[in-house]
Amino acid sequence: MNNLLRLLIVSSLFFFYKIDAQYVVKKDTLSGTELSISMDDRINSALEKIEGNCNRISDAPVKTPQKILVPTRELTNAEVCRKNPKIMGFKIQVITVKSNEEARKIATEFRNNFRSLKVETDASLRPNYKILAGSYFSKQSAGDDLRNVKRIYPSATVIPYAVFCVEAK
Question: How many CB atoms are located within 10 Å of the residue 150 CB?
Answer without folding.
Answer: 14
